[in-house]
Amino acid sequence: MFRHSRETAPSAAASELGLVLEPLPVIPWGTLALSYLGVPIVVHHIVVRDEDYQTAIRKLLDSKFVSTVPDRSPPFEVMEHLPDPQGVLKEINDGYKGLDQSSTTFNYPNSSPEKEEQVILIPNSFAHLPLRPAYPTNQYGKYNNIIYPLEWPLIESFVKAALDDEKENNITSWGESLRSFISMMVGYLDITNDILDACEDQAAVEWFSAQFGRGHEATSGPFDRRITKRLGSGKEMPVDMRGHSLF
User: Which one of 1, 136, 222, 225 is most buried, by most CB atoms within 10 A?
Assistant: First the structure.
């Protein structure tokens, strides 16, 4: 799968949420933010200021969003063959407790084009994203009250959130999701090893280096961005995941 071009306007989901939550500043996060940058994936995480969190919940409820629990159920054809399907579902959800304890999940209204999806509302301290009066255009894309973090602030937020989760819970499904977000950014986008060099949090710099940057390359070699049905088959595409020519 190839990367997409960076978007030049908010997605339909972000626009709908931005209108509902206006005038609160809203930051798309997780895969909704990755999709804006060109990574081919979407799930609806949005971030608001800590002090706006309860107001945002009320606004969503007033707009017919329904507060619920995250739907992580495997398909029915899988669940029906499990000896303890509820035990399996509990184990799945336990892997996301760090996220679930700090966020609120909603179903979209039945009238929404996104009615089959869910949105996860997250306070900005959990996401390590500052919400400020002004946003540098080289770090954020701003559309009225919708603020998309670009590569540097987004990957820094994922790294810090992953570190938080490791400290609290060791290895979890939520932590692995954050790692996958970072891996997709490194794979699909033009992320270089020095992207966090200016970060003041040395633990975040060292973690990124060991997992995805200079330290990782020193032990495992460069990140393999080839696109193929089977690596080494001789059927690799002539361009990589970022759309760059390999020849």
Answer: 225
